[in-house]
Write a structure and sequence with these properties.
There is one protein chain. The protein has 13 helices and nine strands. The protein is an alpha/beta fold. The protein has one domain: Rossmann fold. Helix 7 packs across helix 13 and helix 10 packs parallel to helix 11. The protein starts with a helix and ends with a helix.
Length: 464
């Protein structure tokens, strides 16, 4: 453009107007850039947040879930005579965790042995768009957990099912703590960990991050957090959302009944997740909640009933997502030399060069009524007959997260709607109830497979 002006605009008037034009363009560009910077983390209240761009790449959560179960037996056996046979039926060598070992495998009740090996003889075939998804490799997963950061699992006892399954999938490369065979008086709130085994054949081939200590840097941790908030935090949120003239709103802990629940303050588990090496090396937090959000636990909710519980859940999860994203953003700024320090974490020199931390919200699952009468998967999800607990409303809890996380406001928190494979497996539950899921039936292992795919392939392709 400068050459053109020098050649063709000889008069001073022409040069004057050209200069004005260039200055105008520069001013417009500068103000536009500042405007974009201003709203990169906070959006004007007068307009809704922009949706995230369309998902691309290979095998989105929706594509993965839009598949079907295919019969794929691992053994020629037709009956089970001993509980340890469930390992071979499941394709496991062993399981590192000692927590309710055979209950997790669904093999603790001899009267239900006829479910084996049928329940372990199915393979999930993802839907279209997932043709390039790699087969799950325990060796590759262990390498990723060590070199690129571990998983921090937050949720209720169904998430504990997932942790136990991981201890089987990753065996013999991991060891688990605590050892429940040494202390039967366990507490459900104890943290459970998987560590790299000193005898793992992979140990000498791994590039350990600076500060990584094989003795106390976990690869995977499970924390029992049923509600994602402490009771006190939820009481405060409940009070804050009540209309000023609502005289029926509880003024103390009467929001809750005496029903048992295990949960932690947000700050406690966030500080653990974001802690630097050598104590922790997490890159991905996987959360799931919904099963304990019932009218029996929240007996004092206002308005009463499931609508009141859902309203509290929606307001609480809005605050949760804001808090979590704020912490993740603050740590990123501190890590790269910014001036904003996080309120619950510190960043050490060992954090520099680490992959960006992210949080995945896995869709929660309802159970299956009369589950122990089924011996194979469904082809389509069936409606409830009696609507036990809050099962008929789990979709609404999931919808809160799906809508909340569909915008750009929370770039490091992602919703994984991968619940459909489990919804099609009424035959895959543990022996004592119809909510918890047995290890080895392919449901829990499918979660592991997809999360590994998401953090190693899908997130990179889509810029997450």
């Amino acid at each position: 453009m400068t050459v053109f002006l020098r050649t063709h605009c000889a008069s001073s008037t022409a040069r004057k107007w050209a200069g004005i034009t260039i200055l105008t363009l520069l001013f417009y560009t500068l103000t536009s850039t500042l405007s974009l910077s201003k709203f990169s983390f906070k959006y004007p209240s007068s307009r809704p947040p922009r949706p995230r761009p369309p998902l691309g790449g290979t095998c989105s959560p929706k594509e993965y879930a839009n598949g079907s179960w295919s019969y794929h037996p691992r053994t020629n056996a037709s009956v089970m005579t001993h509980p340890r046979e469930s390992l071979a039926f499941s394709g496991f060598e062993n399981c590192a965790s000692s927590r309710e070992y055979f209950w997790h495998l669904g093999a603790d009740d001899e009267t239900q042995y006829d479910r084996f090996p049928g329940a372990q003889s199915w393979e999930w075939i993802p839907g279209g768009g997932c043709e390039g998804m790699r087969a799950l490799s325990k060796e590759s997963l262990v390498r990723n957990l060590v070199e690129n950061g571990g998983w921090y699992l937050v949720g209720d006892s169904v998430t504990e099912n997932h942790f136990f399954s991981l201890s089987c999938v990753l065996y013999p490369h991991v060891i688990a703590t605590p050892d429940y065979t040494e202390n039967a008086n366990f507490d459900r709130g104890w943290a459970q960990h998987l560590y790299l085994s000193p005898s793992s054949p992979l140990r000498g081939t791994l590039a350990l991050p600076k500060g990584f200590n094989i003795s106390f840097t976990p690869l995977v941790t499970f924390r029992r957090v049923d509600l994602l908030f402490s009771k006190d935090e939820l009481v405060d949120i409940h009070k804050a959302i009540q209309p000023a003239n609502n005289l029926k709103a509880p003024k103390d802990q009467t929001l809750f009944s005496e029903e048992p629940v295990w949960t932690l303050p947000v700050s406690q588990y966030l500080s653990e997740f974001l802690a630097p090496l050598p104590m922790d090396n997490y890159a991905t937090m996987v959360v799931s909640t919904g099963g304990h959000w019932t009218t029996t636990l929240f007996s004092g909710v206002s308005p009463e009933g499931i609508k009141g519980v859902l309203s509290l859940f929606e307001h609480a999860m809005q605050r949760w997502a804001e808090r979590v994203q704020e912490e993740l953003t603050s740590q990123q700024r501190t890590k790269f030399g910014g001036t904003t320090a996080t309120t619950t974490t510190t960043t050490s020199s060992t954090d520099r060069g680490r992959p960006r931390r992210r949080v995945l919200v896995r869709a929660y699952l309802p159970g299956h009524e009369s589950c122990h009468g089924f011996r194979k998967p469904w082809k389509e999800v069936q409606p409830f007959v009696w609507n036990w607990f809050n099962w008929g409303d789990i979709w609404a809890f999931n919808a809160v997260f799906e809508k909340l996380l569909s915008t750009r406001r929370f770039p490091d928190i992602h919703y994984l709607g991968i619940d459909r494979p489990a919804r099609l497996r009424p035959d895959a539950h543990t022996t004592g109830d119809c909510l918890h899921i047995m290890a080895g039936a392919g449901v829990l292992e499918g979660w592991t497979h997809y999360i590994w795919h998401f953090v190693t392939q899908y997130a990179d392709v889509n810029g997450y």
